[in-house]
């Protein structure tokens, strides 16, 4: 890729060391506890807010860093610490990305600060796109938004798999405003804090990332003013008119958000994979059997070699996608999906091999690799399954309508 150089600037390296220190000293020691509790780790988020890690300023500064690598580098370190706690810290970022991708400057100025709160009064944001019957098909969204004569919008429906759903201060909800147009008839809405009709449904008990709150969000006659339509009424009507006239409308709201955040999600998976690899490597260089370190056995050494190689491969694909996104390069070969696909599957494979290297000990909670493995699996599922990523990549490389 012309112009891409995986050399980190001094500022990015400095941020990496700062975040790594917090992950090592605060996040990692708390990982097992909050995994067992299956609760939002508010004290850890509070500590992150106090040092400025959980803040709008941090996310915005890293997002606009020139190379595009700052946010993936920071996310890798956070998730190296612990994925469940990590997602609790960065989960608001998905809602913020949805707002930044689709909202007006005025909407961003009003709602982004309310998603994060302050270091003394921490708040969360939630992005609500998935639905119980829609799976990976955002075109099957049934949540409806209808405008009444007063100009307000009324939303009804159920969202699922929402990170911070129901406990967030600000929810961003994708809804259909014209079902006949499918994904092109969708729009995103901000639901302000305390809006009547929005409630939390089922909270999910999960296989992994247990410290991250995941729940259904129920919308029952939720009324919001016109100012809560991201992008504004004029922009929506113009887009719908183009679609009805058979013209291109641009990306729809949910897919624009997912495409924007895909390299960052890949970076999370890289962090988990690296944690698994490093723990297994250190174990293999310390554990002795039959009078020698188990890392001296080719079977272990070769496995560690493959693990290290795959982690670096996933990181480089992630950095390339993040750089391209920052530089405004089109993902002509679905490079964003490539990063998500490889990083997610690498995290699952590497953490499984880490368990294998530790043997029976790796299968117990005396060591964190079993938790790493449980946490890794979601990265082949959410934000687009591995199958969906392959579908996107297949369409890009063949130019055919692969189904």
Entry summary:
With 403 residues, this protein is of the alpha+beta class. The protein has helices spanning 10-37, 42-50, 56-63, 70-81, 83-90, 92-102, 105-116, 233-244, 253-286, 298-327, 335-358, 369-376, 386-398; strands at 117-118, 121-122, 125-128, 144-147, 153-163, 170-176, 186-191, 198-203, 214-224, 288-289, 292-293. α4 crosses α9 and α9 (253-286) packs antiparallel against α10.
Layout: helices, strands, pairs:
Blueprint: H1 10-37, H2 42-50, H3 56-63, H4 70-81, H5 83-90, H6 92-102, H7 105-116, E1 117-118, E2 121-122, E3 125-128, E4 144-147, E5 153-163, E6 170-176, E7 186-191, E8 198-203, E9 214-224, H8 233-244, H9 253-286, E10 288-289, E11 292-293, H10 298-327, H11 335-358, H12 369-376, H13 386-398
Parallel strand pairs: 3-6
Antiparallel strand pairs: 1-2, 4-5, 5-9, 6-7, 8-9, 10-11
């Amino acid at each position: 890729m012309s112009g891409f150089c995986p050399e980190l600037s001094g500022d990015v390296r400095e941020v990496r060391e700062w975040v790594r220190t917090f992950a090592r000293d605060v996040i990692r020691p708390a990982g097992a506890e909050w995994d067992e509790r299956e609760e939002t780790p508010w004290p850890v988020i509070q500590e992150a807010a106090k040092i400025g890690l959980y803040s709008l300023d941090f996310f915005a500064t890293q997002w606009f860093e020139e190379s595009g690598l700052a946010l993936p580098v920071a996310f890798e370190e956070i998730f190296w610490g612990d994925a469940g706690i990590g997602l609790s810290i960065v989960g608001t970022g998905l809602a913020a990305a949805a707002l930044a991708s689709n909202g007006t400057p005025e909407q961003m100025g009003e709602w982004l600060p309310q998603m994060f709160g302050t270091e003394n009064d921490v708040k969360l944001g939630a992005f609500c796109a998935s639905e119980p019957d829609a799976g990976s098909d955002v075109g099957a969204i049934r949540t409806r938004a209808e405008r009444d004569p007063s100009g307000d919008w009324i939303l009804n429906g159920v969202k699922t798999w929402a990170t911070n759903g129901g406990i967030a201060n600000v929810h961003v909800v994708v809804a259909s405003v014209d079902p006949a147009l499918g994904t092109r008839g969708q729009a995103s809405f901000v639901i302000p804090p305390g809006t009547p009709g929005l409630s939390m449904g089922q909270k999910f008990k999960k296989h992994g990332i247990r410290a991250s709150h995941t729940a259904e969000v129920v919308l029952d006659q939720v009324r919001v003013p016109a100012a809560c339509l991201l992008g504004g009424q004029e922009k929506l009507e113009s887009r719908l008119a183009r679609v009805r006239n058979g013209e291109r409308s641009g990306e729809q709201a949910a897919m624009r958000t997912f495409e924007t955040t895909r390299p960052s999600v890949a970076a999370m998976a890289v962090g988990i994979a690296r944690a698994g690899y490093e723990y297994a490597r250190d174990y293999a260089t310390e554990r002795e059997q039959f009078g020698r370190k188990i890392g001296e056995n080719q079977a272990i050494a070769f496995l560690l070699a493959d693990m290290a190689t795959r982690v670096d491969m996933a990181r480089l694909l992630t950095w390339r996608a993040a750089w391209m996104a920052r530089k405004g390069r089109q993902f002509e070969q679905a490079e964003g999906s490539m990063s998500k696909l490889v990083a997610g599957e690498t995290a699952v494979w590497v953490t499984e091999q880490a368990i294998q290297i530790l043997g029976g000990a790796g299968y117990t909670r005396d060591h964190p690799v079993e938790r790493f493995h449980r946490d890794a699996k979601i990265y082949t599922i959410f934000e687009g399954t591995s199958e969906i990523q392959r579908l996107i990549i297949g369409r890009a490389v063949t130019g055919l309508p692969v189904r």
